[in-house]
From TrEMBL:
Protein known as: DedA family protein
The VTT domain, residue ranges: 38-155
Keyword field contains Transmembrane helix: yes
Lineage, opening ranks: Bacteria, Pseudomonadati, Pseudomonadota, Alphaproteobacteria, Rhodobacterales
Top-rank taxon: Bacteria
One of the record's GO cellular component terms: plasma membrane
Amino acid sequence: MIRRLYFWMLGMVDHPRALWVLAGVAFVESSVFPIPPDVLMIPMILAQPRRAWLIAGVALAASVLGGMLGYAIGALAFDTLGQPILASLGKADAMADFSTVFNDMGFWAVLTAGVTPFPYKVITIMSGWTGMPLGTFIATSILARGLRFFLVAGLLWRFGAPIRDFIERRLGLMFTLFVACLLGGFLILRLI
């Protein structure tokens, strides 16, 4: 089923309502959907590079709004909706241990999930469940998702199709290494 959804999404790249489809995918990916909006965003930008910033902006706005839905699921319906969603992602066992550490790391958890391949929907639901301040969640989501989507848009706008392989195969790893170095730097500064 996921494979069919993936190919359906790729088929929507040239559709006149592709931006609306991207917005829908970015919205639901932030709380329940398993396929990231990059699947649509990358070929859309390659097909129309002059619209790269608009495409990234739509993905950002819809993703943050979808993240707020994930936050609401965690805050208001964790037992009935949030827990089954996280269980379907294989994250149910780690929830109790994770929740105690989560709010101590709140900003970093949202930032990390927003830019790395870690499922952002897990963090949106956990943010609501653990009671992270909504303002912190929204601001960090805008920063993280904006960084991710606009960096992808900028790379595709500047370098075109040759950079696609790097984005699809290695950009998530680069973001992960960047966040790890950033956290490591802060940790070293704290210890000094």
